[in-house]
Specification:
This protein is mostly helical and about 160 residues long. Helices cover about 60% and strands about 0% of the residues.
Length: about 160
């Protein structure tokens, strides 16, 4: 199938709004976690485990995000090429997933259980955004090639690559 060079995905879709939004919310959590109105959400005996889990998630997020190459992504979008190698063989949306892990880690490390629902909200928002925007665009643009890729690679949570049968 020949693709018109002018017909390609937008260079900047909904992802930056998602990333900045969840980072902003997570920063607010860190800033306001100790306010008197929220102090009953702190569990002093679990401070260290929450901190360790949070740091692990932040490091994992950086590991997922770091291999993404924005210049490579922009080039592939302009050339209408689907990236399926490198980190994209492990997770379809590494920039968004990495940001989700970093933001979730910050929320957990903050150690206030009142905010522990946010990582679930982050995951749901990412899933809903991707299904209703970029995945539709990619299906329209790449068809069966993208469908096969989706069967092998998870949307948000990295897993070792599955091989096609």
């Amino acid at each position: 199938m020949t693709r018109d060079k002018k017909e390609h995905l937008p260079l900047y879709g909904v992802g930056p709004y998602y990333n900045f939004g969840i980072l902003f919310v997570s920063i607010l959590v860190v800033v306001f976690r100790n306010t008197p109105a929220l102090s009953s959400g702190k569990i002093p005996s679990l401070k260290i485990p929450f901190l360790v889990i949070g740091i692990i998630l932040i490091v994992l997020g950086i590991i997922i995000y770091a291999p993404t190459n924005i210049a490579r992504i922009e080039k592939s979008i302009k050339e209408n090429k689907l990236i399926t190698t490198g980190i994209y063989a492990w997770v379809r949306n590494p920039m968004y997933s990495g940001c989700m892990f970093i933001s979730s880690g910050a929320v957990i490390a903050a150690g206030n259980v009142y905010f522990f629902f946010l990582p679930i909200v982050y995951y749901l928002c990412l899933t809903i955004l991707m299904i209703n925007s970029e995945e539709k665009w990619l299906r329209d643009l790449y068809g069966n090639e993208y469908e096969e890729y989706c069967k092998r690679v998870n949307r948000c949570i990295p897993f070792p690559p599955k091989h096609s049968s």
